[in-house]
């Protein structure tokens, strides 16, 4: 399914007429997704007294090490808080036995963030390009699991960056979703219309905030103007939301960025500001987020209330927490947080090392799934890996480089099993050396994989 929508797409033509003051005022658009109008945006006379500067700092952890031009944030190895955090949010790779147990007799549905998950966090958002190996890994996963990318970027932009027609795309934090038409039918919704993609296939386009497009366009143009004198500030228009990046702004000028953005947004009571990783995001005041987008996608794909599916969401940003929360509270899936610094999360597992967040992330998860699927009774067929019969997987594990040949044909299960045992044994040894006294059994139990491989 080709989701590359060009300028002829019937519902994506942006209105350019000015927005009146009345439109920006108290009259909220109809629909079940609107927030209670009594919930007011706080007054922002001073970004310091209202805590906005603190929020900017807390959502922007300091860089611990630079790898080329990638801002990879790595906590010190001797940091005790890091050890405790890893116990609370164990590595998704080393905790595979637990993941496999949850996936027994189930199929997987995969949801992915883009920036910081599939691509590195870089100084220039336009240079956040996923590697060819990562693209191939995502394509492999999408062959066997329903796979969607839910990004804060515009849907068109994230499709342009990824370029895979096998995926489902949701842009603007889930406020712009394209899905196939459900053959079983779906409830009529004024925010959901039918259109066609580039291949002529009928699809649904869901845009719960489409009437905010003129407001977002106006705010975007204004923010470009009022921040142009701040060196390093960059404003992006994501169609249904806009963002102000301050990653390249000198920290002493952060209060100036915050003050100008918040002062301007006082005129727009129907818009709100959220904080991401060195970015201020301006979004409509509606009850819609990545968690709602996950629920909508599951329903659209016929997977809602389906016990045969296990949804997994992999993301790194604060906005991904809504998706983690939906899966945790519904007890129907789990989140995997990509982070190099300790922070509270609704996710169950984590991926910490830069080596874990590159292309081997999805390759390794896919290989592990296939390795144990027969013994666990998984119900999807074994895929053919003929294009890559032998994968040389170079894994950097706590400073130890391990080169292992993994045979991915039907005769390769023993070699893969030995690889899994080696990786888990290394992780177990590393963590046992650092675990607080009295918690050794917890580590041993977590790494018990007897009978799995």
Automatic annotation (TrEMBL):
Pathway: Glycan biosynthesis; trehalose biosynthesis. GO terms for molecular function: trehalose-phosphatase activity. InterPro entries: HAD-SF_hydro_IIB, OTSB-like, Trehalose_PPase. GO terms for biological process: trehalose biosynthetic process. Its cofactor is a divalent metal cation. Its EC number is 3.1.3.12. Coiled coil: none annotated. Residues 1-23 are annotated as: Disordered. It comes from the Eukaryota. Keywords: Hydrolase, Stress response. It catalyses: alpha,alpha-trehalose 6-phosphate + H2O = alpha,alpha-trehalose + phosphate. It holds the Pfam family Trehalose_PPase. Belongs to the trehalose phosphatase family. Removes the phosphate from trehalose 6-phosphate to produce free trehalose. Trehalose accumulation in plant may improve abiotic stress tolerance. This is Trehalose 6-phosphate phosphatase. It comes from Arabidopsis suecica (Swedish thale-cress).
């Amino acid at each position: 399914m080709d989701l590359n929508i060009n300028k002829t797409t019937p519902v994506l033509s942006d209105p350019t007429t000015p927005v009146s003051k009345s439109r920006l005022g108290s009259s909220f658009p109809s629909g079940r997704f609107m927030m209670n109008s009594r919930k007011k945006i706080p007054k922002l006379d001073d970004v310091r007294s209202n805590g906005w500067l603190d929020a900017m700092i807390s959502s922007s952890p300091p860089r611990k090490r630079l790898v080329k031009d990638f801002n990879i944030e790595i906590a010190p190895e001797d940091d005790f808080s890091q050890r405790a955090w890893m116990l609370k949010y164990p590595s998704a790779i080393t905790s595979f036995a637990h993941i496999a147990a949850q996936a027994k007799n189930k199929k997987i549905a995969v949801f992915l963030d883009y920036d910081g998950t599939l691509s590195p966090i870089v100084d220039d958002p336009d240079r956040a390009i996923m590697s060819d190996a990562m693209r191939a890994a995502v394509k492999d996963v999408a062959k066997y699991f329903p796979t969607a990318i839910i990004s804060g970027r515009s849907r068109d932009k994230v499709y342009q960056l990824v370029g895979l027609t096998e995926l489902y795309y949701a842009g603007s934090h889930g406020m712009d979703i394209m899905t196939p038409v459900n053959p079983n039918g779906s409830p009529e919704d004024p925010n959901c219309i039918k259109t066609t993609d580039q291949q002529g296939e009928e699809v649904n386009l869901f845009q719960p905030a489409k009437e905010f497009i003129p407001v977002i366009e106006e705010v975007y143009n204004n923010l470009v103007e009022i921040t142009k004198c701040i060196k390093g500030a960059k404003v992006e228009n994501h169609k249904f939301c806009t963002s102000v990046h301050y990653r390249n702004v000198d920290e002493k000028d952060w209060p100036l960025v915050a003050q100008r953005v918040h002062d301007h947004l006082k005129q727009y009571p129907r818009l709100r500001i959220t904080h991401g990783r060195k970015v201020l995001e301006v979004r409509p005041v509606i009850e819609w987020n990545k968690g709602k987008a996950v629920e909508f996608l599951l329903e659209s794909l016929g997977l809602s209330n389906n016990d045969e599916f296990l949804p997994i969401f992999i993301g790194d940003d604060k906005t991904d927490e809504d998706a983690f929360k939906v899966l945790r509270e519904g007890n129907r899936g789990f989140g995997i947080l990509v982070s190099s610094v300790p922070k509270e999360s609704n996710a169950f597992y984590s991926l910490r090392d830069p080596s874990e967040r590159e292309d081997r992330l999805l390759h390794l998860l896919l290989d592990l799934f296939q390795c144990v699927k027969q013994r666990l009774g998984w119900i999807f067929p074994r895929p053919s890996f003929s294009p890559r019969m032998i994968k040389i997987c170079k894994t950097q594990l706590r400073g130890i480089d391990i080169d292992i040949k993994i045979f991915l044909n039907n005769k390769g299960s023993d070699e893969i099993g030995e690889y899994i045992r080696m990786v888990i044994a290394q992780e177990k040894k590393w963590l046992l050396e650092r675990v607080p006294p009295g918690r050794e059994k917890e580590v041993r139990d977590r790494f018990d994989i007897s009978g799995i491989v």
